[in-house]
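Posted in: Structural Biology > Protein-Ligand Complexes

Title: Requesting predicted complex, zinc ion in pocket

I'd be grateful if someone could produce the 3D structure tokens for the following input. Sequence and ligand are given below.
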Amino acid sequence: MSGPAVPPPASTARTDLWLESRYRKLRRGLPQTVFYCPACKGHRRRRQGCEQCGGFGKLTRESVQELIGRRLLPAMRARQGRFHGAGREDVDVLMLGRGRPFVFEVIGAKQPDVDLEALRADIEARAEGQIELAPFVRVGRQRIAYWKEAHFDKIYRADVAAGGAVAPERLRAAAAFAGAIVQRTPQRVAHRRADLGRERALRVLELQPRGELALELRVVCQHGTYVKEWISGDGGRTEPSLAALLGVPCRCVALDVEEILTDGVAGPRVSPPDAALPPAET
Ligand SMILES: [Zn+2]
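-- Reply #1 --
Done. Output follows.
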């Protein structure tokens, strides 16, 4: 032995790193990322006296991003975290199955060498059942672009309210639907996105009555399909819709992403092998 061990010098270096995982979201009303108030944008000064958020700056107390970041950033003594999801579900939609892939970008970490498995367990424990995470994997920055650009079919499960009794033959026909649908940009997002007509492939996997005027639906569809609007028809902006197939008004009461069919996840597909259909003419 060559004398007493010399402790490494206390490092003040900061480093950036990227952690990949998948999240399952088990509570409705939890957004994926920080849900800033649309009126004041959470701005430190402008939010004071903001009527929409009461000065809080956000419209929900927490998000998937915050549930992770509030444990991860202090553990790594990091300045800031950015959340990069492979798409996102609506706030009121559960994310089940194997979960949604994401990359958590850690900026300016002073202590990057933490036990990632212990950290994951800590995040889950503090989230109190709202989210579950797959083990973190250290990845390179390029994984952000990969998940942003890759498109996957998804399986959804929905509770549907019907506005009238459904004829048995129409129920059978709707339960066997598989084909192309054309969706104009939904009214609820038309102010944010270009109003285009897009063709999407969709197949009904299951459609079962669940008591009077209630149905349970499972579908597999291409990325970018607006499932709530496919159910209702969105005032004729989606054709054909479940409502049109059944001949009664329909409304999505609850929606879950049951699986994102990323490479390696087994399940029925609807996308052609070389995905990304061009936008349909309308
Ligand atoms: Zn506000």
